[in-house]
Amino acid sequence: MLYISPSILSADFANLQRDCTEAVGNGADFLHIDVMDGHFVPNITVGAPVLKCLKKAIPDAFYDVHLMISDPNRYAPQFAEAGADLICFHLESDGDVQQTIDTIRSLGCKVGIAVKPATPVDAVLPFIDKVDLVLVMTVEPGFGGQDFMTEQCEKVFALRQAAIDRGLDGLMIEVDGGIDKYTSQIAVTAGANVLVAGSAVFGRGSIAQNIAAIRRACQGEG
Ligand code: DX5
Ligand code: ZN
Predict the structure, then answer these.
(1) Which ligand is nearest to the CA of 41?
(2) Annotated catalytic, 176?
(3) Can you give the pTM of this predicted structure?
(4) What ranges make up the beta strands (E) of the chain?
(5) Which of 44, 62, 155, 190 could cross-link with 30 by S-S, CB 3.0 to 4.6 Å?
């Protein structure tokens, strides 16, 4: 199963409900909420109040929350309360990884763990049987619109092999950064099954057609 998770970072924030409704009604499986604290990454985006309003406006969407913040264990409850379905935190953030996993689980959310480009796959392997999703960053986290780092697909491939070897058939592997109708095919071939796309979905043209183009490309019809 292939999931497409448009990143709201490239949506029109003055028309967030409109853009997200169009995405969800036209093939988006998840909505990817990029949360940045100006500390873990050099940018600031949105917090739990924005998620809470979106959840109220579009209750049936699946909210895939990507925390690029220094202290995820402290803030995860706010995002769960606001409507997150899955909370993904960075392996490189502060705090004990297992404790943060346990916190997110106790909140009733699915758990994801994200790795920056410089983090080796070995660092995340001890946790793959404890989470629902591993997010492989295919750009440096912080900004939309950057170029896809193809070499990160080696990490995706190694993760998928490890998941298969351990019988973790349901492990979702998400790629985030520079995903479009071309790069998504490379990522899916390597073993990714959740595609985050910001500028390729919300940047220009029709949101519905942009999502369809990514899905078609990954089904070999591109
Ligand atoms: C980057 C974010 C991404 C980003 C993706 O730090 O985590 O989700 O918004 O945007 P594009 O698809 O434009 O690279
Ligand atoms: Zn993201």
Answers:
(1) 1
(2) yes
(3) 0.98
(4) 3-6, 31-36, 63-68, 86-90, 110-115, 133-137, 172-176, 194-197
(5) 62
